[in-house]
Amino acid sequence: MVVLGIDPGYAIVGWGVIEYSHSRFKVLGYGAITTEAQTPFPERLQIIYNDMCYLFTKYKPEVMSMEKLFYNSNQKTVIDVAQARGVITLAAQMNNKNIFEYTPLQVKQSVTGYGRAEKKQVMEMTRSILNLPEVPKPDDTADALAMAICHAHCSGSAIGKLNNLLKKDI
User: Does domain 2-169 have CATH number 3.30.420.10?
Assistant: First the structure.
């Protein structure tokens, strides 16, 4: 299974593509889609959409795994991130990809075995699981790879398989 993990944002969208087969991981690519602050917001969304479509074409992932949106104290930020998530979701939909969402707690649990792990622990375990020489930068990229690992682990479980079947039936 090829999974595209996404850490959504509008300044930086972290992405990572992994192949998961027979309980083994292979990194196919990772990086970040970046948009400049002075760029008009609609153009930033277009850049994100176009780059996402490129990733789907280049890596041909079977599914996309993305962090669930959670509200923090800044309303403007959450609205802008929600708009970016919208174009990311649209790109996945236009490329006929199933979308799976996970909370930070689920990702931490999946990657480290502990749902309250510190960010550095998650990043180091991501590096270790994927056998990378160093933690990918920026942090959003490492987070996206962790998101992909989370989906690979969850989809391999009996509950994950049941959720996948239910999602297809809906």
Answer: yes
| pTM for this model (two decimals) | 0.89
Given a contact cutoff of 8 angstroms between Cβ atoms, the answer to whether 1 and 155 are in contact is yes
**38 phi and psi angles, rounded to 5 deg:** -80, -10
Catalytic center residues = 7, 67, 140
pLDDT tens for each residue of the chain, 170 residues long:
999 999 999 999 999 999 999 989 999 999 999 999 999 999 999 999 999 999 999 999 999 999 887 766 667 788 899 999 999 999 999 999 999 999 999 999 999 999 899 999 999 999 999 999 999 999 999 999 999 999 999 986 544 444 555 555 54
- Cis ω for the linkage preceding 138 (within 30 of 0): yes
